[in-house]
Design brief:
Layout: E1 3-7, H1 15-18, E2 27-28, E3 31-32, H2 33-42, E4 48-53, H3 57-70, E5 73-76, E6 83-86, E7 94-99, H4 106-111, H5 114-117, E8 122-126, E9 129-131, H6 135-145, E10 149-154, E11 162-166, E12 169-174, E13 184-185, E14 189-191, H7 209-216, E15 220-225, E16 229-231, H8 235-245, E17 260-262
Parallel strand pairs: 1-4, 1-8, 4-7, 10-15
Antiparallel strand pairs: 2-3, 5-6, 8-14, 9-16, 10-13, 10-14, 11-12, 15-17
């Protein structure tokens, strides 16, 4: 099953970084965040990727062209340029990099990949959000319900402190708390090929009319993920992920402590992260 990575946006809220490189190439713990996303799928044996790029597409193309050199050792003859690769990497990914247009929206990017995807079910996710999502359980859930689309529902990370008040008196202060069951679109989709028929043009975000119509048609199911999930929307997010990524086992690769619960509920409205 192919995995489509949406990697074409401008990343304007990360302007300090994205004026020089595309957002998926912003580094977390010494590696582009996109590679951390790919690691999640690789953990479950999925290594056939299609990268839908746009903004600064040439940098992404050049990166993947050279990735086999960066991941392995080699000897090069400086005079004649002859190179002998000495493989050290265990990665066995196949990566197709497709320029889907500078201004194309997420739905349009996927639509432009029809010939690359073929007639088989496929997965889609964003290149800037990581989580210890059980991809095997996600795919099994998608196969079990027989609908066209599955979205992974996640709970947004708490960003603000919580105050418990009695009148004007503060009775409790918690730095980060998440008491309410709020679900948002966390990416990590599984789609049947017929989903492509819901995508009508370059200007169409996946998160608007296509997902809404799938939900109204009863064709969108939610895979609830209770484990770790975090986007990289801001500099503060990048700093948080940088700190977490420096751990021996980043939380997005800690699948032993991830918890996924499937749902038979079909969301009629999805919030965007």
């Amino acid at each position: 099953m192919k995995v489509v990575l949406l990697a074409g946006g401008l990343g304007s809220r990360l302007a300090e970084e994205t004026t020089r490189i595309p957002k998926p190439m912003v580094e977390v713990a010494g590696r582009p965040i996109m590679l951390h996303v790919m690691d999640i799928y690789d953990r479950f044996g999925f290594g056939d990727f299609v990268v839908a790029c746009g903004y600064k597409a040439m940098l992404i193309k050049k990166f993947f062209q050279d990735l086999h050199l960066m991941n392995n050792d080699f000897t090069v003859g400086i005079g004649d340029g002859e190179m002998n690769l000495r493989p050290t990497s265990k990665l066995n990914w196949r990566v197709s990099v497709v320029d889907t247009g500078l201004s194309t929206m997420t739905g349009g990017r996927i639509r432009r990949l029809r010939d690359w995807i073929g007639d088989e079910p496929f997965m889609v996710t964003y290149s800037d959000g990581v989580g210890n999502v059980d991809i095997e359980a996600l795919v099994d859930f998608h196969k079990s319900h027989g609908k066209l689309a599955t979205v992974t529902a996640v709970q947004p990370p708490a960003r603000f402190g919580n105050l418990e008040l009695s009148g004007s008196k503060v009775t409790e202060f918690t730095e980060k708390v998440q008491k309410h069951e709020t679900w948002i679109n966390g990416g990590f989709f599984v789609f049947e090929p017929a989903v492509l028929d819901y995508l009508t043009g370059d200007e169409e975000p996946l998160e608007k009319q296509p997902l809404t119509k799938l939900a109204h048609d009863g064709e969108l199911m939610a895979f609830k993920h209770y484990g770790f999930w975090h986007p990289m929307d801001t500099i503060r997010d990048r700093e948080t992920l940088e700190k977490l990524g420096s751990q021996d086992l980043p939380p997005w690769m800690d699948f032993e402590n991830g918890k996924a619960v499937t749902s038979t509920d079909m969301p009629t409205e999805l919030m965007s992260a």
